[in-house]
Specification:
alpha/beta, 47% helix, 332 residues, 4-stranded parallel β-sheet
């Protein structure tokens, strides 16, 4: 603009420092701020979950809109309220008090979307943005190609170390459920002892072999470090380049586990609306799980990501993934 000389390095570094500063302020202030949320009484809003940083204030008919001190108000917009509460809700809006549907607020506070039954707009509410998905897919392939070339020496050294640490192939291959329910072969650095294939394994044994438990004895010494640092995931850059995966998305499950979950959990297969990822919203919030009860919670987190898919949510996941790599949280 106006042909004024400037330093590109200073321009970029200033932007990154500003972004880091505002993220820090958000973490320290916004996330630790205690919210007062007014609740319009109804059958659904009287069963709101408890959050550490939220005070639910049950509104009474005698409370005037000008006198209540709240950050927002939640209401069941699908309930049939009497004329009094319809008028009160209008007054709240006119007094510039934000009014939200209670499910929207609970989703944003918990980071999860519950789907217990199908309704007219259930699928429409979680359908991802097609335009962003196409841009994200192109960016994934470009980023994965660059990362593959840059990290190839590290992958080669790691593969050699895996071969020296225990007998067996350096690369582990496994069939997993992918985009739109189509199986694909995932690549990882081998972190477990190579076992001879069992020709007539039972369904229960197949499921058990597909699960990684806490302190799993099959994990090698080197494998523990690779899992904690996420270096075992590097070969999945090949899956991204081939268009089978994304950098960020729901983690793909082993084929036997995915088929089992689909039988046990309603709507489980809807998590396949987008490409599986190397890391994801459920991964950074919950870590690795295999129990059906925990997988139900994981599904709610996956639906939150699909419904709120955006560039900035992907940035947040990327930042928290780097923190997870350092801390090792969620690794098995």
């Amino acid at each position: 603009m106006m042909r004024i000389d400037y330093s590109r390095l200073q321009f970029l570094s200033s932007y990154l420092l500003s972004l880091a500063l505002y993220l820090y302020i958000h973490q320290k202030i916004a996330l630790h701020r205690r919210l007062r949320v007014g609740v319009v009484p109804s059958a659904a809003t009287l069963r709101l979950p408890t959050f550490d940083n939220v005070d639910w204030i049950l509104l009474e008919p005698e409370d005037k809109a000008d006198d209540i001190v709240v950050d927002a108000i939640v209401v069941d917009l699908r309930a049939d309220h009497d004329d009094f509460w319809d008028t009160q809700i209008t007054h709240y809006v006119l007094c510039a008090i934000p009014v939200y549907h209670f499910k929207q607020v609970v989703e944003q506070l918990s980071g999860r979307v519950e789907i217990e039954h199908l309704s007219e707009n259930t699928l429409g509410a979680i359908n991802p943005n097609d335009v962003y998905l196409k841009l994200k897919g192109a960016a994934d392939i470009l980023a994965a190609t660059v990362l593959f070339l840059v990290l190839l020496p590290i992958m080669l050294v790691t593969a050699i170390m895996v071969k020296l640490d225990s007998p067996g192939p350096a690369i582990f291959k496994q069939h997993r459920m992918g985009y739109r329910g189509k199986p694909f072969t995932i690549y990882k650095m081998r972190t477990m002892r190579a076992e001879a294939p069992v020709s007539a394994a039972s369904d229960r044994q197949t499921l058990k072999n597909a699960m990684t438990q806490v302190g799993d004895p099959r994990i090698t010494r080197l494998g523990q470090f690779l899992r904690r640092s996420r270096l075992d995931e590097l070969p999945q850059l090949v899956n991204i380049i081939r268009g089978e995966m994304s950098l960020i998305g729901p983690r793909p499950e082993a084929l036997p586990l995915s088929q089992w979950y689909e039988k046990e959990i309603p709507f489980y297969h809807y998590r396949h609306l987008i490409k599986p990822g190397v890391t994801g919203w459920a991964q950074i919030n919950q870590g690795h799980v295999t129990d059906v009860a925990d997988v139900r919670e994981k599904l709610h987190l996956d639906f939150y990501y699909v419904k709120n898919l955006s560039f900035w949510l992907d940035v947040l996941i990327s930042v928290r993934t780097l923190r997870t790599m350092v801390s090792g949280h969620g690794a098995r």
